[in-house]
Amino acid sequence: MPHNHEQILETVRRELPTDELLSDLSDLFKIFGDTTRCKILFALFESEMCVCAIAELLGMTQSAISHQLRILKDADLVGKRREGKTIYYFLSDEHVRTIIAQGFEHLIEDTYGRGEDT
User: Among 40, 46, 98, 99, which residue has the least CB neighbours within 10 Å?
Assistant: First the structure.
């Protein structure tokens, strides 16, 4: 008996996002593909911080951290607020917190939570 997958294809084609939207999603995930940016996001997951504190935490220059924060800000992953002359950075919304938490949970689950048979 031949395999008929037309119904599945019709459903998936109807639900598949546009190429432009998938490209934007791919670009978003590329931003998470940098260890320094992931460290910054993880630090901001814990607390809002200024550039100098992040630089000290990661053992990097303020210039290098500012560059990475600009990329994160342009992607709407972090926001900032000014207090006097100091600018504090924070995760822009709960979606960013969820992405980080879910990604980390996935890694921990694969490493520590499930056997290799699962």
Answer: 46
Rounded to whole angstroms, what are the CA distances from 118 to 104, 108, 109, 112, 115? 19, 14, 11, 12, 6
pLDDT, tens only, 65-113: 999 999 999 999 999 999 999 999 999 999 999 999 999 899 888 677 6
Q: What is the largest CA-CA distance in the chain?
A: 74
- Exposed, middle or buried by CB within 10 Å (0-12, 13-18, 19+), for 70? exposed
Which pLDDT value is given to residue 25? Answer: 94
Give the three-class secondary structure for 89.
strand
CA dist 17 and 75 (Å) reads 20
User: DSSP 3-state assignment of 57?
Assistant: helix
Distance between CA 22 and CA 28 in Å, rounded? Answer: 10
